[in-house]
Amino acid sequence: MHNPLIEIKNVSKAFDGFSILKNVCFSVYSGEFLTLLGPSGCGKTTLLRLISGFETPDSGDILIEGKPTAHVPPQNRNLHTVFQSYALFPHLSVFENVAFALVCKKTPPTEINTRVHEVLALMRLEPYAERNIKQLSGGQQQRVAIARAIINRPQILLLDEPLSSLDYRLRQSMQYELKQLQKKLNITFIFVTHDQDEALSLSDRIVVFNQGEIEQIGTPREIYETPNNLHVATFIGETNIFDATVSHCDEENLYTVIDGIDIQCKRCNDFKTDDKLHLIVRPEDIRVQNVSEVSDTRGKLPGKIIDIVYKGTTVDLKVELSSGTIINASEFFNEDDDELEFSLNEPVWAHWLKGWEVLLPYEK
Amino acid sequence: MKNKSLSIKLLYTWFLCFAFIPLLLIVVTSFLSKDAVHLVKLPFTLNNYAVLFTPLFMKIFIRSLLISTITTLVCLLLAYPFSYILIKSKIKTHLLLMIMIPFWTSSLVRTYALLSLLKGNGILNTLLIKIHFITNPLNLLYTNFAVISGLVYSLFPFMVLPIFNNMERFDFKIMEAARDLGAGPLDIFFRVFLPNTKKGIISGCILVFLPAMTLFYIPNILGGARSFMIGNLIQSEFLEMSDWPQGSATSIGLILIVLIFVYFVRFRGKKQ
After folding, report:
1. pTM score of the predicted model
2. In this predicted complex, what is the ipTM?
3. What are the mean pLDDT values of chain A's consecutive 10-residue runs (364 residues total)?
4. How many Cβ atoms sit within 10 Å of the Cβ of residue B94?
5. CATH superfamily of A6-235
6. What residues of chain A lie within 8 A of the CB of B173, using their CB?
7. For residue B247, what are the domain limits?
8. Helix extents (H) in chain B
9. Residue B177 and residue A103: Cβ atoms within 8 Å?
């Protein structure tokens, strides 16, 4: 890949002796949509503030275009932030809010006028130009915050949970708009969120944080399908976790035992005989069948249905296995299987296709 | 509902009895003539108002305006940074209390305290001579300086409180946003902080300017003949000269000046 736009090198930060970021390293490439994902208080907002220059790292370096930024104040960095609470100027109109960065740069008024109207049109805010900020809805304020941050054509846009205060539907449409905007403007987006759906649907790459450390960096697909550890697996999407033991391996397969039942898995070199491991299967990968439909019960786990939730495109089942473990399974409706009729307490077999599982080293 | 209308009626009655009727009496009195025995007598005359435009009266009006304006500006220049420091401090409520507590004692007593501070052999002069800053005591008392000091000292909290209140509600996140958008320190102050604390400044200026124009005991105690203000004028007209009609006309003049000031500061300021 080409040279990184931002390099975060061994960055650490502590507040009042409490460590927030621990030796964080990663790079951001030009034009990408990168998401910092993690639970609240994991240090992702702090990292954003370090990049924007509002905080300085205790140790380590942040390089933008290869240049160290330690002594560059926020106003001299070619990046702008969309704040979580928007932080719009309450005493200025929509137009004046958007024009702010240009006014500070002493841009000639005619140029300010054309550029602000351009951005207002882009954000579909034209009719509100003269409105007061307090007269706008949450979604409109959000748009003003974005318009204000892109007016200066920054290289990098930092977004600190920008959608968290919008309602579900508005958030969905803003997600789409953000993605379109990023493509159109070709600005590098660094997006902070604790919402894994948002991260999966928007990002080119995701950096998963937990307690100030990076757990995994990868594309949404890599993060979802091959999580690095238990935390990533459980934080992103729904998961079923089985504790299993390796019984033996051969050329292609790894044989594990879950609650006394032999399960054939795809070979993985990380494990050897008698190792304990976590076996992770996503609910949509689990197939649930009535006992009467199954003749070959090898590699299948017996249980009974204890909950059925109809979701439109799927039926979400909770299955209590004979060992007492409760697993989640999402069954999709499709044309060759019209028998998706389940009833409570129905005895079933649950299984998944070999290779759809993820094997992780045993933790705890 | 009934209770509410009752309380509003009570309020109106209160205003009628203790604000409107007295004001009306002053207005009526201002058009009457002076009488040595009955205080006022007929006929109606405009003469009392004509007197207001004589050079002597104009001089006192202008001096009062100047002293009050300087007092207001000094209060503002002190209170604005002071409030900011207060907001940023971790013990702001304690610090605010420390300004408030002295004001629970009589302001007359505090003005006399200032007198002993400023007089020829007072604390300030003694101190300045001790540190060899001056050789002869300064003539501080009975000057406009003393009056302004007294007014600033007495009215300072009325400037601090509205500004403090306003700044406390200010969202400091937007200063960060301004910085993020490329604003330097001057831009942040003049384009963001000042406009957002303007309301506090306006309230503070009104709360300081109005009493500064009308207080009479501070210029009385600390000022000499050259710092005679409208308040003193009204006082002497009523109490020393027993010229109630002239005193009333002067009061009406003061009320008009104050109304014009409030109109310009408050309503013109809001329109912008």
Report:
1. 0.78
2. 0.78
3. 83 88 91 90 88 90 88 87 90 93 91 93 90 89 92 91 85 89 91 90 92 91 89 87 85 82 80 83 89 82 89 86 88 67 86 85 79
4. 10
5. P-loop containing nucleotide triphosphate hydrolases (3.40.50.300)
6. 83, 85, 87
7. 54-271
8. 2-15, 21-30, 47-52, 55-88, 92-100, 107-118, 123-130, 144-168, 173-180, 185-187, 194-196, 198-214, 217-222, 230-239, 244-262, 269-271
9. no
